[in-house]
Amino acid sequence: MTPRKQTTSLQDRLSVFVAESRAEAARTPTRADPFPLLKKVRQAEKAANIERWANSPELQPPNSCDVITRLL
Description:
By secondary structure, the chain is mostly helical.
């Protein structure tokens, strides 16, 4: 099985999933339980936050000069 290249970013895919899932939860009949779907929405939001944090410029690896300066 050959891997597929994603055409949209993880952030975009998670945003679409969250929006669609929230809309589906809002359409859920009152007798049905929307909480499992809302739990998935919260998990997707957390994943989006972690992905955004992991790709932030503040988390770039230190260059060797910074490491040496801190050790001195």
